[in-house]
Amino acid sequence: MTQIYMQTFGCQMNVADSNGLAHQAWSMGCTFVADPSLADIVILNTCAIREKAETRVYGRLGQLKVFKEARPDSKLLVCGCLAEKDREIMRSKAPWVDALLGPRDYRQFKQLLDRWGVATDSPPAGAIFTMPSAEDDPGQDLHQAYAHLRALVNITRGCEKFCTYCIVPYTRGPLESIDPEEIESQIRREVKAGAKEIMLLGQNVNSYLHGSGLDFAGLLRRIKSIEGVDRLTFLTSHPKDFDRCVVDALAELPNAAPRMHLPMQSGSNAVLEKMARLYTIEEYLEKVAYFRERLAGWALTTDIIVGYPTETEADFEKTLDVVSAGTFEQAFIFAYSPRAGTPAATMTPQVPQAEKIRRLQAVNAAQNEATRRFHESFIGDTVRVLTQGPSKKDAARMAGKTGHNVTVIYPRDERTEHRPFVDVAIDQAYNWGLSGIVA
Ligand code: SAH
Ligand code: SF4
Ligand code: F3S
Question: Which residue's CA is the closest to the ligand 3 atom numbered 7?
Fold first, then answer.
């Protein structure tokens, strides 16, 4: 029987792809192992969003070379965004890689396994599919036994926004919207398999447009009647296409998780324009105001890039001001990382690395205060969490996520271990989340 080791880097899109690949391999009789030295096939699903993501993948490839040498018959497949971006370079940088598949090549996956001698075409006898743990999955970080509680459902593929800093349109190709029937049947399948939370995925879910004229708001209305979805959420929204219609549709949903991710990127119009984001900060804040009005109590999260080429101190302070005003419950803040082939990589002047780090730390400090205030607002409340599994740091405790996506830690026992949802009375707040006792 062929054993596969699979490791996933990058965003939820990659996690969803890994899931799909794992299902295909399983349907051909493969099983999964957690130790690469036991694997006949090693699969790395990679990310190229920033230089750091690439460095980590190449570091891992260096380690895997040793395993390859110990088992010369084993195969190493690199897929995902870095496989696409570094298609040529990788052949010289890591010649021990046997095959590359970019995110648009996964239809060739089964053929490849076939070529590598994976002979059967039925699932391993007596086995139940469990997703191989996605080891590097910052958004989810799920324990394998609980992974099925949250399902990722693609609604679009690719992106054609071409924000000037971003590699994704080059690695994932143009926008495609998936048939609503296919989306609905996948949601039903996931619910049947035990999913409680459905996350609709796309680089820009608001650009969903199906042939028949169905847009994202229409899609939300269409799937709202599917039974058994306790929490419905989605990632990511683009502020240009996110509009009042979407907010209104969300307000109608009985099961929408009260959270929304709307990447601002910068508080400066000059920078937003150079990024080709297609909105001004005033438009962004106006959309946020309508969102706050209609969806009171929701958590707003964002992505921010500091040190974009040409960003001045005054530009940066505009970003800092929006964050300091407590606009966001949580923010993911990145230092700009030049991506070869994108327009921003050759823009001048580039901001020196030390200055990027200073700006990053300043925005982080401002956001941490807002996040902590948000977390403190839950002290004394009882919150319902969706179980994630035993806490990574302390196996005597469990971790779960609130509807706002805040991490909660609570004691592990018979009751809390086996229930998908647990009510926790919150007594402590931290920057990273909350802790409490079972209510
Ligand atoms: N499609 C999503 C984001 C995908 S990438 C969107 O449009 O918002 C996730 C985040 O990574 C982006 O929001 C951006 O903040 C950051 N990012 C993308 N390219 C980057 C780069 N070259 N340097 C630093 N951060 C980057
Ligand atoms: Fe990248 Fe912009 Fe597309 Fe998001 S919308 S994936 S940031 S190009
Ligand atoms: Fe990375 Fe590709 Fe996602 S570059 S962030 S894995 S779309």
Answer: 168
pTM beyond cutoff 0.85: yes
CA of 224 to the centre of ligand 1 (A): 29
Alpha carbon distances (Å) from 197 to 251, 297, 309, 402, 420: 18, 19, 39, 11, 10
What are the structural domain ranges in the chain? 3-115, 144-376, 382-438
CATH architecture of 144-376: Alpha-Beta Horseshoe (3.80)
Q: Which of 208, 308, 334, 339 to mutate to test the pocket of ligand 1 (most atoms within 8 A of CB)?
A: 334
Q: Which ligand is nearest to the CA of 169?
A: 2
> From CA 337, how far away is CA 358, in angstroms rounded?
15
Q: Which amino acids bring their CB within 6 angstroms of ligand 2?
A: 159, 161-163, 166, 168-169, 203-204, 238
Q: Which atom of ligand 3 is nearest to the CA of 48?
A: 4
CA distances in angstroms from 353 to 230, 271, 328, 331, 359, listed in the order given = 44, 18, 26, 21, 10
What's the CATH fold of domain 382-438? Answer: OB fold (Dihydrolipoamide Acetyltransferase, E2P) (2.40.50)
Topology of the domain comprising 3-115: Rossmann fold (3.40.50)
pLDDT in tens, 240-298: 999 999 999 999 999 999 999 999 999 999 999 999 999 999 999 999 999 999 999 99
How do residues 35-58 score in pLDDT, each as one tens digit?
888 999 999 999 999 999 999 999
